[in-house]
Write a structure and sequence with these properties.
Blueprint (H helix, E strand, L loop, with lengths): L3 E2 L17 E2 L6 E2 L14 E2 L10 E2 L15 E4 L4 E4 L4 E4 L9 E7 L11 E6 L14 E6 L2 E7 L6 E7 L9 E8 L8 E7 L2 E9 L9 E4 L6
Parallel strand pairs: 1-3, 2-9
Antiparallel strand pairs: 1-7, 3-7, 4-5, 6-7, 8-17, 9-14, 10-11, 10-17, 11-12, 12-13, 14-15, 15-16
């Protein structure tokens, strides 16, 4: 793993539609910054971890329960975009129960890769699988963001054989040690209509998106992963 996260910013984060909830990770550089989510924009976040010298969240809707397989990780810290950032030199697994809304939300974070955007290795920035007791949870109700070989890819998988949405952006210009802001936003999942909207934003600019899609997601895992695949 080679990222860092931090609670500050040198670039303004992209504006979110006012009615959409969000989950925000504030910086994988892999230095790591924070993670946040809400059911409505006017409500408190479901989970917000500033990673400013600590992995304990500033806000969380549900405490980790016995058997979650995740708690507040122990990471090292260094300079962030503002304040400190967490260096992802160990697993960063957070409890997802009560912290992840599959219907609509945003995952957003700052990251400072220690690799160039053209690096051929696969760098998983965010991952959550379908619920553990489902057959092949890595293929169903999964959210992933991965950087590899000059491309940034984001996937949202439906349940069963419900298909998936894939977005892609060019990151060939990324250089090791530079900060970037990413956001993956979705709405209309599991609405029963072909009205799902999924957008990928890079450094405040729209990079890719799909609209008018029918996608149904089932229950997700009790654990979400930052900087690693969930089966790594």
């Amino acid at each position: 793993m080679s990222h860092s996260l931090s609670p500050g910013c040198t670039l303004p984060p992209p504006a979110l539609p006012p009615a959409w909830p969000y989950v925000r990770m504030r910086a994988l550089g892999i230095a790591l910054l924070g993670f946040l989510g809400t059911a409505l924009a006017a409500e408190p976040p479901l989970l917000y971890v500033p990673f400013d010298g600590s992995c304990v969240p500033a806000v969380h809707a549900a405490a980790p329960s016995r058997g979650d397989g995740a708690g507040w990780p122990q990471l090292t810290f260094g300079p962030g975009v503002r304040g400190q950032a967490a260096l992802l030199d160990a697993d960063c697994r957070l409890p997802a129960a009560g912290h992840f809304d599959t219907r609509r939300g945003t995952i957003a974070f700052w990251l400072r890769p220690l690799w160039d955007g053209t690096d051929p290795a696969s760098h998983v920035l965010f991952c959550i699988y379908g619920r553990e007791d489902l057959p092949e949870p890595w293929l169903h109700s999964r959210w992933s963001i991965v950087a590899q070989g000059g491309r940034l890819r984001a996937w949202v998988w439906g349940e069963g054989d419900g298909g998936r949405i894939e977005l892609e952006a060019d990151i060939t210009a990324w250089r090791a040690g530079e900060w970037h802001h990413l956001a993956l936003t979705w709405d209309g999942i599991s609405s029963g209509q072909a009205d799902a909207v999924v957008r990928l934003t890079v450094d405040g600019e729209p990079a890719s998106g799909k609209t008018g899609v029918a996608l149904t997601a089932g229950p997700v895992s009790t654990v979400l992963d930052i900087g690693r695949d969930s089966d790594a």
